[in-house]
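Example record used in the benchmark description.
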Amino acid sequence: MTAVQPHLDGTIPTPTIPATRRKAEDYETWVAAVRPDLIAEAKTGKPFLFWQILRRPHLPLAPDPAHDPGRLAAALHRDGITRTAGYGKTLDKSAVQRWRGTRAVIEGRVA
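Model output (structure tokens):
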């Protein structure tokens, strides 16, 4: 356990957890934090991999990392924001879906 130095007035400081270590409390909170970055990437029209966007240091970790990214990917596809664009690889060389923004999101008709 790490020792915490109290302030001079005796209060305990609020712990600061870097964003890369912070885990979202629930799915909805996590989606609200990561969705803007994913939509911005989709608007470029270039192919991207979800895991590369979700690893950005300012974004929180998913509450259920095994299932939540796939759940969000399916929701964005269902909402007409992304479409498939082949396959890419994860860090361990597993095949994953590559995504690209739809014409509607690139033109600003869908958000």
